[in-house]
Design a protein that fits this description.
Blueprint lengths: L2 H8 L5 E6 L9 H8 L6 E8 L8 E11 L2 E11 L9 E2 L5 H8 L3 E7 L5 H15 L5 E4 L4 E4 H8 L12 E9 L2 E9 L8 E7 L3 H17 L8 E5 L3 E8 H4 L24 E8 L2 E3 L13 E2 L3 H13 L1 H11 L6 E9 L6 E11 L5 E5 L14 E4 L4 E7 L4 E2 L10
Parallel strand pairs: 5-8, 11-14
Antiparallel strand pairs: 1-6, 1-7, 2-3, 3-4, 4-6, 7-8, 9-10, 10-11, 12-13, 12-16, 13-14, 14-15, 17-18, 17-21, 18-19, 19-20, 21-22
């Protein structure tokens, strides 16, 4: 059985590897220290913790531990490694959230960091959340974290903040999309490809030989990957991710079967497909599927400029709503501090019942006041399609139980349920 078949039929995946850096070289990287830290945790149950022998062929690896835990009734085996920090250049890692530059500089001064390796369960976001919880339990005041598969640097403050929440972080933390281009005959040719899905029991996804609409196609690929986090599609299996006057149906084909149809020298072409360049793993090239025919996705370049509707999995809508609720007290606190101040604006997204059938229409509102009973005085920002009694610019009083998301525009930056920690750390 090949790798693609093992991924589809057996859920084959790679381990998720993440490192955490302490602060001021104050971490005692010993068994006793970590054992005492684990005694304080409440989010997961420690079944066993032991120090094991290290790989003597890796001189930067100083200690190794094995941690067995139960989290939400599922067992996890987590390998922990104490590693010399000088093996990493933190400047080589991209950033997805705000990181205090002082924390980055402090991380560079650390002599060692703690690396973790664990396999995700089928609940990807819960597993990622657990990995954050474990690392911040062991090193409770981190400067930064390194997420190796998507090559990302994460804020230690964000990790601590997020690890204390019930709701897991966004799917966007699981993966990154890399865009590589070159000029071929005076024309830019792009290759968009993901990193991070191999730990999720999925192939990575890519678009090759893109010559038009790279920004729109990056958004399209982003919508696909968010769906794959919850429900990956099998090879040659049609999947729908949205609507743009017509259904947006796609299918993926393993790169080994398709890359020979492209010039070998373009980004993502055969010349770049080698184990040494790490572009050799299971990966699906994505195509538009129309009438059982495959087309390159950049045929959609112009249509995608017309604001396509990308479908969001129900599980993701529920996660976003849960996070918005869980962080609402911060929203309310900032509203009370800055409502009416220049350059501050408070938006809220509510899912209101539609007139016919089941389901909700998700609408954005300006918030003008929050009442003592947590009803909100709001102004509707967009025209509903499926709720006849409401119109754009209506002034309404609505309850919080319809909350699905919120956004704060500040004088210098915006804040979401995911990034509100920046105002409180």
């Amino acid at each position: 059985m090949g790798l693609y078949e093992q991924i589809a039929e057996e859920g084959l995946r790679l381990a998720s590897e993440m490192g955490v850096f302490g602060r001021n070289n104050s971490t005692d990287f010993t068994y006793n220290y970590f054992q005492n830290q684990l005694k304080q945790v409440k989010d997961f149950e420690v079944m066993s913790f032991e120090e094991v022998g290290v790989d003597t062929e890796n001189p930067s690896l100083k200690k190794q531990f094995l941690l067995n835990i139960i989290y939400k009734q599922l067992p996890y085996d987590i390998n922990l490694f104490v590693v010399e920090s000088n093996v990493l250049d933190l400047d080589n890692y991209a950033r997805i959230n705000y990181i205090d530059e002082n924390d980055v500089q402090l991380a560079k001064l650390e002599s060692f960091y703690l690396e973790s390796s664990m396999y995700f369960s089928t609940n990807i976001l819960e597993s990622f959340h657990l990995q954050l919880k474990v690392l911040t339990a062991l090193i409770p005041n981190p400067t930064v974290l390194v997420d190796f598969m998507p090559a990302r640097l994460l804020s230690g403050q964000w990790a601590v903040f997020s690890s204390k929440l019930i709701t897991p972080p966004s799917p966007h933390y699981i993966y990154t999309i890399h865009g590589v281009f070159d000029e071929v005959d005076g024309e830019k040719v792009y290759w968009l490809h993901t990193h991070g899905l191999h730990r999720c029991g999925s192939v990575e996804l890519e678009m090759i030989d893109i010559k038009n609409g790279v920004n729109e196609l990056n958004g399209l690929l982003d919508a696909m990957v968010s769906k794959f986090i919850y429900e990956p599609a099998n090879e040659n299996e049609p999947f729908n991710i949205g609507y743009i006057g017509y259904d947006l149906n796609f299918s993926w084909v393993r790169w080994e079967e398709m890359v020979g149809q492209y010039p070998a020298e373009i980004p993502g072409g055969l010349q770049e497909r080698s184990p040494e360049q790490e572009n050799y793993g299971p990966c699906g090239i994505v195509y538009l599927l129309e009438n059982d025919e495959l087309y390159p996705p950049d045929v959609l370049a112009e249509d995608l400029k017309e604001n396509p509707v990308y479908f969001i999995k129900n599980e993701e809508t529920e996660r976003m709503s849960a996070l918005a609720y869980e962080q609402y007290h911060y929203y309310k606190k900032v509203f009370q501090q800055h409502n009416g101040d220049e350059n501050w604006r408070f938006l809220i997204k509510l899912g209101l019942p539609i007139d016919e059938g089941e389901g909700n229409e998700h609408l954005w509102f300006d918030v003008t006041d929050i009442n003592d009973d947590d009803t909100m005085n709001v102004i509707l920002l967009n025209q509903p399609y499926q709720i006849e009694k409401y119109n754009q610019n209506d002034a309404l009083v609505l309850p919080i139980e319809h909350l699905t998301d919120w956004l704060i525009y500040g004088p210098e930056k915006n804040y979401t349920p995911d990034s509100i920690y920046e105002l409180f750390t």
